[in-house]
Amino acid sequence: MSRTGPSLAAVLAVPEFRALWFAEAQSVAGDQLAKVALAILVYDRTNSALWAAGVYALTFLPALAGGVGLSQLADRLPRRLLIVACTAVQAVLVGLMAIPGTPLLVLCVLVVALNLVQAPALAAQNALTRELFDNNDLYLRSQDLRGMTTNTVMLAGLGGGGLLVMAIGTSWALALDAVTFAISSLVVFAGVRERPVAGSPQDGWFGAARRVFGDRKLRLLLTMAWLVGLVVVPEGLAAPLAREIGASSEAVGWLLAADPFGFVIGTFVLSHFVSGQVRVRLIGVLATGSVGMLIAFLVHPNLAVALVLLALAGALGAYQIAVSATFNTLVPNEIRGGAIGLARTGLRVAQGVGVALGGLVAELIGSAVTTVALAGAAGVLIAVPAAISWARLNSRPEAPGTNGKSVPHPHIPTVRAEPDPIRRRPRVKQKPD
Question: pLDDT over 70 for what percent of the chain?
Answer without folding.
Answer: 84
